């Protein structure tokens, strides 16, 4: 039919089609190199490029020449501070991983040196972490009993570390670090809280002085283990409770102190790459997550060859490093040196460290990870995220660490897929005294336009939601036709502002929707299709079938054109007058 | 700081928070019952509800009382027409599934009767399909050799049919039919084309008169099988080629005829639910996919008990049924009766059906499924969908049917996840002589506003893209600051029109972006947050930290407010003048 009378102020632009290879190249660049890491290499001579490249892959080459005595003083203080954390934590976490304490100390010696050379964060302090230690003991413990076959167990742990390093380095080299983004905030809160709970439960062994203990990490096995042993001790109950009370008290008092001094109250964070990134933000410099992955991988590969087990950048230690005023990764070198001194001269002393002290250190560190405040925040802001969080927690505590992780990731992904599969559609109305159109649900003040149905969708149109949208739109039309008696409705406007992209299933859906609208004797009008969408609509000849003159830049213009046609076609001017009355601004 | 001078025409509405249970209920309803199947039951007396309920679950009760002689005449003709298809196809597809021909005929007898009672499509013709038959022989053939142990093989096929029926019915009852939506159009084109190619390759056995043949379905095994046997036949090459040529010619001629008469040219479709739905659209009635799933399930459960194997609603037969003018599911009853007559009186004849005829029937049906035109269309409209299609095809042809399906579904999902993880961000500019703001990429005519950076994002903000967006936005600011010399930029406007929803990871990201913007001495302004987003922003106290007066209904208003402040704070009015010059409409 066309619309010869109404002049559109600016037609919707159809961007020129890009050559296939160029758009593929752009797609790969955006997916794998969104941060454009090689930006600085552009327009540089070859020699400069080589130097920049070396500095890129080995950042110490970049900061070492500019290293000053001021920096050294700061790094020395920070390094000694974190070393004082590294020694007890190293020993405790090694015991959590069922490894000899000396391996925990080694792990605070070689990996920090590697990271100091390859890492790009200035604040990150390298070390072992409780959750990874727990994972090692719970997964390797199934294969080899660390008490019966200690040598094999240690070898297995070092092999696992080696392959973890290879995996990290490979992810970084292949620029696949973004996979980590698929762990949501809620998953991490639940998972870390669950892991911390499990770690604390494991400490019941040390605190209660139990001899035989389960290798399972779930709540049921641990409680059964605890109660069966307390039951066996019935013959000398007095001794058991005296044995148990003193260390328990020390743990409780210690934990309360730690809690009050807020030493661990930095909230829950993904350890590793995210830690470096958070602190980088404070000092306003940029961290390339994939490059950090490579540094972590190399650190674990090198570490595993010299009897170090899995290390990363723990949040708590990095926070201490940051607050102690570190300037460069040099603080890691200082820490390594301090740990070496400890290893050389103080090792004999650790032989006498009571297990209960180690347990206390672990519990104190763990309490900060049970971030119930974050969980309450999730409940307040997003119930669905809260459910994800609780599922992860329950999975870890009642199942195992792996089950918890799988449950949480699955729920997160399912939720995302569901929200893609079930986008919301909105009925738009005119905000009085304006040309603005907004959802009638959100703005009850908005008015329906007689004879025109305006639908909006708030997500990309994909195969996963194309069927749903078709049904939904047909349903909305039915309702509208019913409510108006089927006579006055003449135009259906689809507002595509929020449809960022589409695929061929989406295009088929649009075609079917158009057929359906045609069959009812209505006219389909499109408002504000985005460049990706309009390109595909043109290529699939959908625009031809609608007519280019029925595509408008804004909903307001589309409505104005519809009203113009209604006005022109109807003998009475009532409809157009009504609309003009709305828009007398 | 606030903005006391500029009056916003309408503040952004913050919808009242819904009670948790109500929003959960609404979420479940939208996910599982988007089509609101119980709509008609509302506000009805109990007795009426019972009748409606019976009619809902057994649709024959609804249409049988209104059945007229006119309907019967139409259904009779349609039924006999599809029976004439059902008999040869039933025998051919049974041989494809390595089952006795009689089972193929049984399958066109009982299942149509069950569907006629329970199904809600008026046009769907029930029967066996080639791809499912191929799947049965390729999967069960691995376990049991149909030639050596025919009895066990048939029992296995019927058991598989029974459990397929149980699975279908369960999916329907649990309202999980939407899982099928996750198969994209491109996947189906590639998968069906691949399956058709494999089926045709399998027919080389019948056409070339080969005795021993591979049980593998992949191209390599089949070609090896063909060439090894042709090689063995070298001693009597003349006879082999004479034997082979005649049937080959008949197949070629037959296929060309079929192609020219367009009998199969209905394009590629998912068989089953989607078929019924497509035809329902023509007659303007509605099909509930989940209810259809239950009907298919019951049909297969009942069928498997009386020696019928897997049936569904094939597209080609349904199209014939539709074109023959069927009025109700009664045409299926007529077809069943006609097949019964065939079974009773004509069975002895089928003993002499030459294999080559069966092969020809299968190949003729399959050629319509290799929809190369659709593949060309995919290439033109969406290269990524084309890659998905080709992967599915190659997976099926060179691997196996299962491998092809897994590859195609994985690629489709990965593509969707990637597009969620990597949304596009846009820089907006002012379209001259209007208050409209659009992407500068799409509308090169759009002008930058001095001192203001306007960013837009075209997808929901989730945990999967929160990290990426944060980096992206910070990068854009950097670029803008660099290009303007860092002095004049004062406001960053985020246009949230296309952000349909968000989660707690998204909210954290907004908070970090705000911190970063604050640190640079800039001011963050939001434009048009949608109801889901603003609710969560309010609950997480983000709106408080920005200030409610910095949230605007449109980008235009946000820019006007920023300009007003720039104007008020600067001694020279240059900036505001520039903007006024743009907007002198």
Automatic annotation (TrEMBL), chains A, B:
Residues 442-562 form the STAS domain. InterPro entries: S04_transporter_CS, SLC26A/SulP_dom, SLC26A/SulP_fam, STAS_dom, STAS_dom_sf. PROSITE patterns: SLC26A, STAS. Keywords: Membrane, Transmembrane, Transmembrane helix, Transport. Gene3D superfamilies: STAS domain. It is found in: Membrane. Belongs to the SLC26A/SulP transporter (TC 2.A.53) family. This is STAS domain-containing protein. It comes from Populus trichocarpa.
């Amino acid at each position: 039919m066309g619309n010869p009378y109404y002049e559109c102020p600016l037609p919707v632009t159809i961007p020129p089609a890009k050559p296939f290879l160029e758009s593929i190249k752009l797609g790969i660049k955006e997916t794998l190199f969104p941060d454009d890491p090689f930006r600085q290499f552009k327009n540089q001579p070859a020699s400069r490029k080589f130097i920049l490249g070396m500095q890129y892959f080995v950042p110490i080459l970049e900061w070492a020449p500019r290293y000053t005595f001021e920096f050294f003083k700061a790094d020395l203080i920070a390094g000694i501070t974190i070393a004082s954390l590294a020694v007890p934590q190293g020993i405790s976490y090694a015991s959590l991983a069922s490894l000899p304490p000396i391996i925990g100390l080694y792990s605070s010696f070689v990996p920090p040196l590697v990271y100091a050379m390859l890492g790009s964060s200035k604040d990150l302090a390298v070390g072992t972490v409780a959750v990874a230690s727990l994972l090692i003991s719970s997964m390797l413990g199934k294969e080899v009993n660390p008490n019966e076959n200690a040598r094999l167990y240690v070898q297995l742990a070092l092999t696992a570390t080696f392959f973890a390093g290879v995996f990290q380095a490979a992810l970084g080299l292949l620029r696949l670090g973004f996979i980590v983004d698929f762990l949501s905030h809620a998953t991490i809160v639940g998972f870390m809280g669950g892991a911390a709970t499990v770690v604390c439960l494991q400490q019941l062994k040390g605190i209660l002085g139990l001899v035989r203990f389960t290798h399972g990490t779930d709540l049921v096995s641990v409680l059964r283990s605890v109660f069966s042993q307390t039951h066996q001790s019935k013959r000398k109950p007095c001794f058991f409770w005296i044995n148990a009370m003193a260390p328990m008290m020390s743990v409780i008092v210690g934990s309360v102190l730690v809690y009050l001094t807020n030493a661990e109250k930095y909230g829950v964070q993904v350890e590793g790459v995210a830690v470096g990134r958070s602190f980088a933000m404070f000092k306003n410099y940029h961290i390339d997550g994939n490059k950090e992955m490579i540094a972590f991988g190399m650190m674990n590969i090198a570490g595993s060859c010299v009897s170090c087990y899995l290390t990363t950048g723990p949040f708590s230690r990095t926070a201490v490093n940051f607050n102690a005023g570190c300037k460069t990764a040099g603080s890691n070198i200082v820490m390594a040196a301090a740990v070496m001194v400890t290893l050389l001269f103080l090792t004999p002393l650790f032989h006498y460290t009571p297990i209960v002290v180690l347990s206390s250190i672990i519990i104190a560190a763990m309490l900060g990870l049970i971030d119930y405040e974050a969980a309450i925040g999730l409940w307040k802001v997003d119930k669905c995220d809260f459910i994800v969080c609780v599922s992860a927690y329950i999975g870890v505590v009642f199942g195992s660490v792996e089950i918890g992780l799988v449950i949480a990731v699955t729920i997160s992904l399912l939720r995302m897929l569901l929200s893609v599969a079930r986008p919301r559609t909105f009925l738009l109305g005119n905000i009085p005294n304006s040309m603005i159109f907004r959802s009638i649900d959100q703005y009850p003040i908005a008015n329906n336009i007689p004879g025109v149905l305006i639908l909006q969708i708030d997500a990309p149109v994909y195969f996963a939601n194309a069927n749903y949208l078709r049904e939904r739109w047909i349903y909305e039309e039915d309702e509208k036709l019913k409510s108006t008696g089927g006579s006055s409705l003449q135009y259906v406007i689809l507002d595509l502002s929020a449809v960022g992209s589409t695929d061929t299933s989406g295009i088929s859906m649009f075609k079917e929707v158009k057929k359906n609208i045609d069959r009812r004797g209505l006219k389909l009008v499109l408002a504000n299709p985005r460049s990706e969408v309009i390109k595909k609509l043109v290529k699939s000849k959908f625009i031809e079938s609608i007519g280019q003159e029925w595509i408008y830049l804004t909903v307001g213009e589309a409505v104005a054109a519809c009203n113009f046609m209604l006005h022109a076609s109807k003998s009475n001017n009532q409809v157009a007058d009504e609309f003009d009355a709305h828009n007398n601004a």
